[in-house]
Amino acid sequence: MTIHLLSNTLDPVLSEDCVLAIGPTATFDDCPEQLDILFVPGGFVGKAMLDQATIAFLADRGAMAPYIASVCNGALILAAAGLLDGYRSATHWAGRDHLAQLGVEVSTERACIDRNRFTGGGVTAGIDFGLTVFAHTLGEKAAKFAQLMMGYDPKPPFNAGSPQGAGPEMVALFDKFTADSDTTLRNAVSQVKEQRAASSPTRHQGRMPASPPASSPPDRPFHRTTSLPTSTVCGALCDRNPRPYRGRGVVPTSSFPAPCHCTLGR
Protein backbone atom coordinates (compact mmCIF):
# COMPACT_ATOMS: atom_id res chain seq x y z
CA MET A 1 0.00 0.00 0.00
CA THR A 2 1.31 3.41 -0.95
CA ILE A 3 -0.14 6.39 0.90
CA HIS A 4 0.29 9.93 -0.39
CA LEU A 5 -0.28 12.91 1.89
CA LEU A 6 -1.08 15.64 -0.59
CA SER A 7 -1.09 19.40 -0.61
CA ASN A 8 -0.50 22.15 -3.13
CA THR A 9 3.09 22.50 -1.86
CA LEU A 10 5.43 20.49 0.34
CA ASP A 11 5.21 23.09 3.10
CA PRO A 12 3.97 21.68 6.43
CA VAL A 13 0.21 21.94 6.83
CA LEU A 14 -0.64 23.39 10.23
CA SER A 15 -3.69 22.57 12.29
CA GLU A 16 -6.08 25.43 13.06
CA ASP A 17 -4.41 26.07 16.41
CA CYS A 18 -0.91 25.62 14.89
CA VAL A 19 -0.13 22.86 17.40
CA LEU A 20 0.08 20.01 14.89
CA ALA A 21 2.01 20.07 11.61
CA ILE A 22 1.54 17.46 8.88
CA GLY A 23 4.22 17.08 6.24
CA PRO A 24 2.91 16.39 2.72
CA THR A 25 4.69 13.61 0.83
CA ALA A 26 3.72 14.88 -2.62
CA THR A 27 2.16 17.88 -4.28
CA PHE A 28 -0.96 17.91 -6.42
CA ASP A 29 1.26 18.18 -9.50
CA ASP A 30 3.42 15.22 -8.45
CA CYS A 31 0.55 12.94 -7.43
CA PRO A 32 -0.08 9.85 -9.58
CA GLU A 33 -3.01 10.36 -11.90
CA GLN A 34 -4.75 7.14 -10.88
CA LEU A 35 -5.91 6.78 -7.26
CA ASP A 36 -7.70 3.83 -5.70
CA ILE A 37 -9.19 5.84 -2.86
CA LEU A 38 -9.48 9.59 -2.96
CA PHE A 39 -9.86 10.52 0.69
CA VAL A 40 -10.47 13.94 2.24
CA PRO A 41 -10.22 14.49 6.02
CA GLY A 42 -12.27 17.01 7.95
CA GLY A 43 -11.83 19.65 10.62
CA PHE A 44 -11.99 23.37 9.90
CA VAL A 45 -12.48 23.16 6.14
CA GLY A 46 -13.65 26.67 5.18
CA LYS A 47 -10.33 27.67 3.61
CA ALA A 48 -9.95 24.38 1.73
CA MET A 49 -13.44 24.71 0.26
CA LEU A 50 -12.37 27.96 -1.39
CA ASP A 51 -8.87 26.90 -2.40
CA GLN A 52 -9.01 26.59 -6.18
CA ALA A 53 -5.96 24.31 -6.43
CA THR A 54 -7.47 21.84 -3.95
CA ILE A 55 -10.90 21.87 -5.58
CA ALA A 56 -9.48 21.50 -9.10
CA PHE A 57 -7.29 18.58 -7.98
CA LEU A 58 -10.18 16.77 -6.32
CA ALA A 59 -12.51 17.30 -9.27
CA ASP A 60 -9.87 15.95 -11.65
CA ARG A 61 -8.86 12.86 -9.67
CA GLY A 62 -12.43 12.27 -8.53
CA ALA A 63 -13.47 11.82 -12.15
CA MET A 64 -11.49 8.55 -12.24
CA ALA A 65 -11.05 7.28 -8.67
CA PRO A 66 -12.87 4.00 -7.96
CA TYR A 67 -13.55 5.10 -4.39
CA ILE A 68 -14.19 8.66 -3.15
CA ALA A 69 -14.26 9.14 0.60
CA SER A 70 -14.26 11.62 3.46
CA VAL A 71 -14.72 11.86 7.19
CA CYS A 72 -16.20 14.63 9.30
CA ASN A 73 -16.46 17.96 7.46
CA GLY A 74 -14.32 16.64 4.62
CA ALA A 75 -17.65 15.96 2.94
CA LEU A 76 -18.06 19.71 2.51
CA ILE A 77 -14.84 19.84 0.49
CA LEU A 78 -16.05 16.96 -1.68
CA ALA A 79 -19.33 18.80 -2.16
CA ALA A 80 -17.51 22.00 -3.11
CA ALA A 81 -15.67 19.99 -5.79
CA GLY A 82 -18.98 18.65 -7.12
CA LEU A 83 -18.14 15.09 -6.08
CA LEU A 84 -21.28 14.59 -3.98
CA ASP A 85 -23.77 15.79 -6.60
CA GLY A 86 -26.52 13.18 -6.63
CA TYR A 87 -25.06 11.27 -3.69
CA ARG A 88 -25.96 10.76 -0.05
CA SER A 89 -23.30 11.65 2.50
CA ALA A 90 -22.54 11.71 6.21
CA THR A 91 -20.62 14.46 7.97
CA HIS A 92 -20.13 15.86 11.48
CA TRP A 93 -23.53 16.59 13.00
CA ALA A 94 -22.73 20.31 13.19
CA GLY A 95 -22.00 20.37 9.46
CA ARG A 96 -25.19 18.71 8.25
CA ASP A 97 -27.07 21.93 7.56
CA HIS A 98 -24.09 23.29 5.64
CA LEU A 99 -23.87 20.12 3.57
CA ALA A 100 -27.57 20.28 2.78
CA GLN A 101 -27.08 23.87 1.61
CA LEU A 102 -24.78 22.48 -1.08
CA GLY A 103 -27.54 20.24 -2.39
CA VAL A 104 -26.32 16.99 -0.85
CA GLU A 105 -28.69 14.42 0.63
CA VAL A 106 -27.48 14.25 4.22
CA SER A 107 -27.15 10.99 6.11
CA THR A 108 -27.09 10.73 9.91
CA GLU A 109 -25.17 7.44 9.78
CA ARG A 110 -21.72 7.13 11.32
CA ALA A 111 -20.54 5.49 8.11
CA CYS A 112 -22.52 6.08 4.93
CA ILE A 113 -22.11 4.18 1.65
CA ASP A 114 -23.70 5.41 -1.55
CA ARG A 115 -22.29 3.47 -4.49
CA ASN A 116 -18.59 4.35 -4.50
CA ARG A 117 -18.91 7.27 -2.07
CA PHE A 118 -17.82 6.34 1.45
CA THR A 119 -18.33 9.07 4.05
CA GLY A 120 -18.05 9.16 7.81
CA GLY A 121 -19.54 11.29 10.56
CA GLY A 122 -17.59 13.37 13.04
CA VAL A 123 -14.27 12.48 14.66
CA THR A 124 -14.77 9.07 16.33
CA ALA A 125 -17.08 7.95 13.52
CA GLY A 126 -13.88 7.88 11.47
CA ILE A 127 -13.11 4.52 13.08
CA ASP A 128 -16.43 3.07 11.91
CA PHE A 129 -15.78 4.63 8.52
CA GLY A 130 -12.28 3.14 8.32
CA LEU A 131 -13.47 -0.34 9.22
CA THR A 132 -16.24 -0.02 6.62
CA VAL A 133 -13.74 0.89 3.91
CA PHE A 134 -11.50 -1.96 5.07
CA ALA A 135 -14.35 -4.45 4.76
CA HIS A 136 -15.24 -3.31 1.24
CA THR A 137 -11.69 -3.26 -0.08
CA LEU A 138 -9.88 -5.97 1.88
CA GLY A 139 -12.76 -8.11 3.11
CA GLU A 140 -14.68 -8.52 6.34
CA LYS A 141 -12.05 -10.77 7.90
CA ALA A 142 -9.38 -8.09 7.52
CA ALA A 143 -11.70 -5.45 8.96
CA LYS A 144 -12.53 -7.60 11.98
CA PHE A 145 -8.83 -8.23 12.55
CA ALA A 146 -8.14 -4.49 12.46
CA GLN A 147 -10.96 -3.88 14.94
CA LEU A 148 -9.50 -6.49 17.26
CA MET A 149 -6.01 -5.02 16.96
CA MET A 150 -7.39 -1.61 18.00
CA GLY A 151 -9.47 -3.07 20.80
CA TYR A 152 -12.37 -1.11 19.37
CA ASP A 153 -15.29 -2.03 21.63
CA PRO A 154 -16.77 1.38 22.53
CA LYS A 155 -18.82 1.82 25.66
CA PRO A 156 -18.78 5.59 26.29
CA PRO A 157 -19.37 6.74 29.86
CA PHE A 158 -21.98 9.30 28.74
CA ASN A 159 -24.75 9.45 26.19
CA ALA A 160 -23.56 12.82 24.92
CA GLY A 161 -22.20 12.02 21.46
CA SER A 162 -25.15 13.54 19.63
CA PRO A 163 -27.25 16.69 20.09
CA GLN A 164 -30.19 14.53 21.08
CA GLY A 165 -28.23 12.72 23.76
CA ALA A 166 -26.24 15.71 25.00
CA GLY A 167 -29.24 17.98 25.44
CA PRO A 168 -29.80 21.74 24.89
CA GLU A 169 -27.29 22.96 27.47
CA MET A 170 -24.35 21.10 25.94
CA VAL A 171 -25.41 22.02 22.40
CA ALA A 172 -25.56 25.71 23.38
CA LEU A 173 -22.05 25.44 24.87
CA PHE A 174 -20.83 23.81 21.67
CA ASP A 175 -22.41 26.54 19.54
CA LYS A 176 -20.70 29.22 21.64
CA PHE A 177 -17.34 27.47 21.46
CA THR A 178 -17.48 27.04 17.66
CA ALA A 179 -19.20 30.32 16.74
CA ASP A 180 -16.22 31.78 14.86
CA SER A 181 -15.45 28.63 12.89
CA ASP A 182 -19.12 28.16 12.07
CA THR A 183 -19.29 31.69 10.67
CA THR A 184 -16.23 30.99 8.54
CA LEU A 185 -17.81 27.78 7.28
CA ARG A 186 -21.14 29.45 6.60
CA ASN A 187 -19.38 32.13 4.54
CA ALA A 188 -17.45 29.47 2.62
CA VAL A 189 -20.66 27.61 1.79
CA SER A 190 -22.24 30.83 0.54
CA GLN A 191 -19.24 31.55 -1.70
CA VAL A 192 -19.23 28.01 -3.09
CA LYS A 193 -22.93 28.31 -3.90
CA GLU A 194 -22.32 31.60 -5.68
CA GLN A 195 -19.42 30.16 -7.66
CA ARG A 196 -21.39 27.09 -8.66
CA ALA A 197 -24.40 29.17 -9.68
CA ALA A 198 -22.21 31.40 -11.82
CA SER A 199 -20.53 28.45 -13.55
CA SER A 200 -23.56 26.13 -13.77
CA PRO A 201 -23.96 26.36 -17.58
CA THR A 202 -20.44 24.99 -18.08
CA ARG A 203 -19.86 23.02 -14.90
CA HIS A 204 -20.02 19.59 -16.47
CA GLN A 205 -18.30 20.17 -19.77
CA GLY A 206 -15.15 18.51 -18.47
CA ARG A 207 -14.70 15.00 -17.19
CA MET A 208 -17.74 13.70 -15.36
CA PRO A 209 -17.25 12.28 -11.86
CA ALA A 210 -17.32 8.49 -11.76
CA SER A 211 -20.74 7.15 -10.78
CA PRO A 212 -20.45 3.38 -10.56
CA PRO A 213 -23.33 1.18 -9.47
CA ALA A 214 -23.31 -0.52 -6.11
CA SER A 215 -21.23 -3.68 -6.06
CA SER A 216 -20.13 -6.40 -3.70
CA PRO A 217 -16.70 -6.34 -2.06
CA PRO A 218 -13.86 -7.53 -4.32
CA ASP A 219 -12.89 -11.21 -4.30
CA ARG A 220 -9.31 -10.27 -3.56
CA PRO A 221 -7.39 -7.17 -2.47
CA PHE A 222 -6.44 -4.80 -5.27
CA HIS A 223 -3.22 -2.85 -5.46
CA ARG A 224 -3.67 0.34 -3.48
CA THR A 225 -2.09 3.71 -3.85
CA THR A 226 -3.58 5.89 -1.17
CA SER A 227 -3.54 9.62 -0.40
CA LEU A 228 -4.85 12.34 1.86
CA PRO A 229 -4.86 16.02 0.79
CA THR A 230 -3.58 17.39 3.52
CA SER A 231 -6.13 17.09 2.22
CA THR A 232 -6.19 13.09 -0.35
CA VAL A 233 -5.93 8.72 -1.37
CA CYS A 234 -4.83 7.06 -4.65
CA GLY A 235 -5.62 4.28 -6.97
CA ALA A 236 -6.81 2.24 -9.84
CA LEU A 237 -8.36 -1.02 -10.81
CA CYS A 238 -6.81 -3.61 -13.06
CA ASP A 239 -8.18 -6.33 -15.30
CA ARG A 240 -6.81 -8.90 -12.88
CA ASN A 241 -9.40 -7.73 -10.39
CA PRO A 242 -12.51 -7.06 -12.51
CA ARG A 243 -15.26 -4.97 -10.97
CA PRO A 244 -18.40 -3.49 -12.54
CA TYR A 245 -17.18 0.09 -12.29
CA ARG A 246 -17.35 2.51 -15.17
CA GLY A 247 -14.16 4.26 -14.19
CA ARG A 248 -10.89 3.26 -15.79
CA GLY A 249 -7.45 2.92 -14.35
CA VAL A 250 -3.89 2.47 -15.48
CA VAL A 251 -1.64 0.97 -12.86
CA PRO A 252 1.88 -0.02 -13.76
CA THR A 253 2.96 -1.66 -10.53
CA SER A 254 5.55 -4.15 -9.37
CA SER A 255 2.75 -6.03 -7.62
CA PHE A 256 1.94 -7.70 -10.93
CA PRO A 257 4.21 -9.64 -13.32
CA ALA A 258 3.48 -7.03 -15.99
CA PRO A 259 1.82 -3.62 -16.03
CA CYS A 260 -1.96 -3.72 -15.96
CA HIS A 261 -3.92 -1.41 -18.24
CA CYS A 262 -7.60 -1.33 -17.41
CA THR A 263 -10.18 -0.56 -20.01
CA LEU A 264 -13.23 -1.07 -17.82
CA GLY A 265 -16.21 0.88 -19.07
CA ARG A 266 -14.53 2.24 -22.18
Describe how the helices and strands are arranged.
Elements: E1 2-7, E2 13-14, E3 21-22, E4 26-27, E5 37-40, H1 46-50, H2 52-62, E6 67-70, H3 74-80, E7 88-90, H4 96-101, E8 105-107, E9 111-114, E10 117-120, H5 125-138, H6 140-150, H7 163-166, H8 168-177, H9 179-199, E11 225-229, E12 250-251, E13 260-261
Parallel strand pairs: 1-4, 1-11, 5-6, 5-11, 6-10, 7-8
Antiparallel strand pairs: 2-3, 9-10, 12-13
3D architecture notes:
By secondary structure, the protein is α/β, with parallel strands linked by helices. The chain has one domain: 3-Layer(aba) Sandwich (Rossmann fold). The strands form four sheets. It has a seven-stranded mixed β-sheet with strand order 4-1-11-5-6-10-9. A hairpin with a 6-residue loop joins strand 2 and strand 3. Helix 5 packs antiparallel against helix 6. The longest helix has 21 residues. The protein starts with a strand and ends in a 5-residue tail after the last strand.
Strand order of the largest sheet: 4-1-11-5-6-10-9
Uncertain runs are 204-266
Q: Give me the oligomer status.
A: single chain
What percentage of residues falls in helices of 4 or more residues?
Answer: 25-40%
Cα gyration radius (Å): 19 Å
Termini separation = 27 Å
The structure class reads alpha/beta
CATH superfamily, called what?
Class I glutamine amidotransferase (GATase) domain
Number of domains: 1
Write the CATH fold name: Rossmann fold
Q: Could you tell me the strand content as a percent range? A: 15-25%
Q: What shape does the CA trace take?
A: globular
Can you tell me the CATH class? Alpha Beta
The number of distinct helices, counting runs of at least 4 residues, comes to 9
State the total count of DSSP E strands: 13
Major sheet attributes: 7 strands, mixed
